[in-house]
């Protein structure tokens, strides 16, 4: 049976039961649990150092109310990074290639930043909809434009993550298929194609990390506008 290139993005099922929740929950088992010992192993030390550096860099521009979101942003970063990286392994499923999951993460978190702004400083939050010094005839048009740009933010967050990961997986599958087909016909070209595939895999590793960071970074910028 001939499979489509897009079959790799289908949600896995077993006996008719969707395995999406299992694919989301299992990566958490790969992380070491914190310990009360003075001396930890290298993996736990590296994990702690990375989270501290990421949290410091992300929350440095914010004032103290925004620091309450540190645990949420760090957990979200680790979650997205793990799922994106595991999705590059053979015979695995990447949940973040599903727009429904990404929108389910982006919309509630974006809405939470908006609610925080409206609750704490409503005048300042609404002031983003109308730049200072706007001519009177342009006020209605600019309010509409800024409102649309505000509500399109969660869509942009979800679509950006989905599109980047989906495009990378499709390109890797296309090049791998080409190398497999060309191997008995033109071995030299097939070897060159495999070299390109290896370089593309390294690039996709970088993309998986960068997209997880960008997702959380944009959420922190939205929060920074409202605290």
UniProtKB/TrEMBL annotation:
Domain of life of the organism encoding this protein: Eukaryota
Keywords annotated in UniProt: ATP synthesis, CF(0), Hydrogen ion transport, Ion transport, Membrane, Mitochondrion, Mitochondrion inner membrane, Transmembrane, Transmembrane helix, Transport
GO molecular function annotation: proton-transporting ATP synthase activity, rotational mechanism
Membrane topology label: Multi-pass membrane protein
UniProt cross-references to InterPro entries, sorted A to Z: ATP_synth_F0_asu, ATP_synth_F0_asu_AS, ATP_synth_F0_asu_bact/mt, F0_ATP_A_sf
Pfam families reported for this sequence: ATP-synt_A
GO cellular component: mitochondrial inner membrane; proton-transporting ATP synthase complex
Reactions this protein catalyses: H(+)(in) = H(+)(out)
Compartments reported by the entry: Mitochondrion inner membrane
Subunit annotation: Component of the ATP synthase complex composed at least of ATP5F1A/subunit alpha, ATP5F1B/subunit beta, ATP5MC1/subunit c (homooctomer), MT-ATP6/subunit a, MT-ATP8/subunit 8, ATP5ME/subunit e, ATP5MF/subunit f, ATP5MG/subunit g, ATP5MK/subunit k, ATP5MJ/subunit j, ATP5F1C/subunit gamma, ATP5F1D/subunit delta, ATP5F1E/subunit epsilon, ATP5PF/subunit F6, ATP5PB/subunit b, ATP5PD/subunit d, ATP5PO/subunit OSCP.
Family: Belongs to the ATPase A chain family.
Record's protein name: ATP synthase subunit a
């Amino acid at each position: 049976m001939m499979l489509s290139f897009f079959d790799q993005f289908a949600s896995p099922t077993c006996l008719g039961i969707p395995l999406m929740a299992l694919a989301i929950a299992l990566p958490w088992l790969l992380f070491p649990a914190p310990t009360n010992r003075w001396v930890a192993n290298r993996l736990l030390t590296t994990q702690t150092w990375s989270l501290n550096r990421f949290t410091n860099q992300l929350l440095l521009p914010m004032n103290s109310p925004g620091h309450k979101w540190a645990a949420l942003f760090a957990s979200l970063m680790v979650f997205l990074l793990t799922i994106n990286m595991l999705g590059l392994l053979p015979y695995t499923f990447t949940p973040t290639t599903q727009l429904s999951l990404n929108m389910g993460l982006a919309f509630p978190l974006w809405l939470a930043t908006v609610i925080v702004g409206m609750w704490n400083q409503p005048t300042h939050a609404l002031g983003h909809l109308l730049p200072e010094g706007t001519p009177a005839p342009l006020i209605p048009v600019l309010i509409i434009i800024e409102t649309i740009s505000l509500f399109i933010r969660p869509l942009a967050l979800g679509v950006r993550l989905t599109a980047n990961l989906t495009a990378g997986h499709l390109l890797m599958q296309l090049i791998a298929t080409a190398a497999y087909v060309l191997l008995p016909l033109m071995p030299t070209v097939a070897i060159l194609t495999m070299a390109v595939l290896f370089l593309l895999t390294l690039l996709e590793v970088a993309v998986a990390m960068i997209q997880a960071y960008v997702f959380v970074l944009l959420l922190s910028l939205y929060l920074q506008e409202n605290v």
